[in-house]
């Protein structure tokens, strides 16, 4: 209804409009900036591509490589033939799971072995003594103790675990073996699983990098604040620790200088006490007799440069500018680098290893007597009845305390 009341378009409006759609004239140049953006691939596409590539690689490595001529198959043994006839297993990442086994029963051979070991008093004493001797040998390896470490006391408990250690299985494709292509499971070593997880998820390294970055950023912010004469209040204990660290660093630098250390006494063989002479700013050693000029020959610059054993190649000499930059970077990153190492040592853990099935846990304290102190060690080990020895993969010996025999006041 309202459209009918609208006045008709004027005649002037039927002409060309102000903003015409005609292309511009030849004198007008239009510049349009175009930005090309790469399309990000989807996560599902990346996973499918990686899985397909991995499957094709495993098929090529295990299937095509195993194509052997009939003449070669006639010369192999039965064991090798059985290995070739076994199905090829292609594991898939992300399909590994842990399986909790059932507890031991009275009819299991492992539990019967526990009963026999618990009744043998001499064997239990031998097991405790073996672990204490292992701890003593570890302390005796230090050069300051040499062979003067003796066992003083030990408190070791023997425990019989009611459950066997868990196991891991991984899923994947099974090729051959009379079943064609099938989805199957295969057992895997726990240590391999732990190493793989630690490589794929390096949490300790990530925390250490975060500590390095945060320390470096804090240090730079403090430097900028000091540049604008704004110094936040600091803790006197922190200042004392920083001063002590600087003194230690200066002492290390001075000890590394040639002029601060007394040169070793030369021996008739031409070497010092350590067998090597420290390089210093003094003149180099005399050339060998066969390279010295003869008595009648003139000493020209060429003979002096070649006979004195001087290095004519100056390409490896670091310029003072580069040396200054290196020292500046080292001093600037020394604090963050120390924080990185400290955090990495605190967070880094050795991959966990499970003891063999049917092993006996031996844990406790071992006290070692050395000439100047008493060392207490915390020991955890698993004794395998099948091998009658401790499992080296799961044996852990750590330092607990060191008590000096003669203690004097610090002041």
Number of helices: 11
What average pLDDT do the residues reach? 74
The radius of gyration over CA amounts to: 38 Å
Shape label? flat
Global structural class: alpha+beta
Biased composition (Polar residues): 297-316
Region (Disordered): 247-316
SSE order and pairing:
Layout: H1 2-5, H2 43-64, H3 70-74, H4 78-85, E1 88-99, H5 109-119, H6 121-140, E2 150-159, E3 167-175, E4 181-188, H7 190-200, H8 203-227, H9 236-256, H10 301-307, H11 320-347, E5 360-369, E6 373-384, E7 389-390, E8 396-404
Helix pairs in contact: 8-11
General description of the model:
The chain is of the alpha+beta class and 411 residues long. The protein is built from eleven helices and eight strands. A hairpin with a 4-residue loop joins strand 6 (373-384) and strand 7 (389-390). The protein is flat. Mean pLDDT is 74; it is low at 257-313. Residues 297-316 have a biased composition (Polar residues).
Summary keywords:
411 residues, alpha+beta, five-stranded antiparallel sheet, three-stranded antiparallel sheet, 11 helices, 8 strands, 18% strand, flat
Quick take:
This protein has 411 residues and is of the alpha+beta class. It has helices spanning 2-5, 43-64, 70-74, 78-85, 109-119, 121-140, 190-200, 203-227, 236-256, 301-307, 320-347, and strands at 88-99, 150-159, 167-175, 181-188, 360-369, 373-384, 389-390, 396-404. The strands form two sheets. Strands 2, 5, 6, 7 and 8 form a five-stranded antiparallel β-sheet that branches.
